[in-house]
Structure prediction request, 310 residues.
Amino acid sequence: MTGRRRTLAVLYDDGAASAGEIGVGLADLGDVVFLVPPTGHAERLRPVLEDFGAVVALTGTAEGDLARVRDLAPDAVVTYSERMVRKTAELAEALGLPSHTPEVAATLTDKIRQRRVLRDAGVDKVRSHPLRSPDGWPEVYDAVGLPAIVKPVRGGGSRDTYAVTTAAEAAELLPRLFPDGTEAAYTVEELLEGVPSAPYGDYVSVESVCTPRGVRHLAVTGKFPLLAPFRELGSFWPSHLPADVLEEVTDLTTRALEALGVRYGITHTELKLTADGPRVIEVNGRLSGHLNLMSRRVCGVDTVRLGRAG
Prediction:
């Protein structure tokens, strides 16, 4: 007599793992059900998703989504998409399943809030300040100074990210950030200066698995120099860092994850290599983009499987 197969609910949208990677990676762990929002990407990929499991449309309301997920009675709820991190946390908490708490998910997906938590915990004191209108620039300048980097409060992939080194550049950028009085939220941070690292990049990422028993770092990922303005050109294992810097990088990552309260799942932490040691660029509460492809090819490990909770 065989036991009941587990049901794995995957909140799917454009993200770090493709529909095929998720379907293949989770296939032998249980029956996969894809919960999809009403986005163009999810709709286009629906035929692919249906090859790997059932597809259930989210309603767009907290009550409706929870009712649909309760009907599925999943054993785990997971996502590989940045924009679905908060919804996944809300559903997991309501169902009593392991995942980021809603509070942790909100901090991981809000760059202003994340900086404040890391600063208050004494983990990393990168200067930063919110920017919500052109009129707020003088206050931002007083708090952060120049050079600075402007990022959307939410989002990934370095989209709509700009370096500002002079007052003239700021004056040119502000109308583009807020066209015709458009409401938007950005964080402005000091632009960290990396140490010369050619032919490699001056930053790395740390891929980690978090459990209630602690943090385990899977790998430190080396990077190639960025293409302007902030476009990644590639990653590699093992990184080029010497042992003493590797220890500093992983120690800072551990302290950041602990300060943010991360207890479940896989994380992707980016760090700048500066003359004063590594500094946190940002912490992401999900798998890194393209990492699973590299991991499977380099060492035969499927990180989609590691990214599930429960």
Observations:
- The mean pLDDT is 95.
